[in-house]
Task: inverse folding
């Protein structure tokens, strides 16, 4: 009975969020069990180009370090904001969501080459948080019960939290920068005088991922609690 409940809850997670978070957890588990090592996963342009180790283009987004506070913190934020994007502004637009993943991943890979980052998963999480926060500007956030602010400030608060923990903020800045590029090209520039839509999802992705019918019994997560926990709890203004 418990297995059926867990399985049902797992299958209720939208497909892209389910696939990505599962891949991250399994990758970390494989490292913890010493089936693989981080040296086989990290981003290295020389090994990719000279030794054809193309899997590194993907695996560097899947490893968030050993199991601990940092890993759990990133997984919670990745799951929550990835899912809320997929069930919110990308509802019924799975192909567009996958294209956002590909676009963001490509930009991060290019920028990551110049700033010498070997794992880009955390930056990708910040990108998701940034895009969600800009598309939900009226949501009020509460961080650890200490700070109250509106959603667009969340990526910057997380960057400050990383700084307090002694982590490099280059990762956070990269995620914010890539998230802003996507948000500007997708949400801002098309609505400007003389603007246009530069980001167009390829037709083959729409053929693969978009379906004409939706499940009437599908129950998305409420966006009134965007953080899901005390450090990111929120509510909409006027609610």
Result:
């Amino acid at each position: 009975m418990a297995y059926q409940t867990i399985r049902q809850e797992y299958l209720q997670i939208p497909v892209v969020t389910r696939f990505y978070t599962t891949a991250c957890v399994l990758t970390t588990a494989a490292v913890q069990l010493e089936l693989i090592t981080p040296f086989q996963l990290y981003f290295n342009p020389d090994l990719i180009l000279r030794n054809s180790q193309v899997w590194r283009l993907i695996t560097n987004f899947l490893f968030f370090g050993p199991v601990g506070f940092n890993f759990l913190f990133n997984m919670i934020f990745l799951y929550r904001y990835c899912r809320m994007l997929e069930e919110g502004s990308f509802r019924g637009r799975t192909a567009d969501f996958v294209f956002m993943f590909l676009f963001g991943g490509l930009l991060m890979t290019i920028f990551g080459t110049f700033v010498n980052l070997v794992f880009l998963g955390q930056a990708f999480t910040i990108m998701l948080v940034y895009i969600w926060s800009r598309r939900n500007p009226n949501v009020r956030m509460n961080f650890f019960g200490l700070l109250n602010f509106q959603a667009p400030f969340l990526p910057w608060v997380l960057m400050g939290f990383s700084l307090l923990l002694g982590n490099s903020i280059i990762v956070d800045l990269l995620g914010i920068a890539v998230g802003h590029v996507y948000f500007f090209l997708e949400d801002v520039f098309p609505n400007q005088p003389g603007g246009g839509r530069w980001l167009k999802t390829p037709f083959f992705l729409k053929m693969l991922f978009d379906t004409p019918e939706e499940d009437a019994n599908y129950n998305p997560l409420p966006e009134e609690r965007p953080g899901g926990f005390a450090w990111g709890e929120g509510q909409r203004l006027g609610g």
The longest helix spans residues 94-115. Residues 44 and 118 are 7 Å apart (CA to CA).
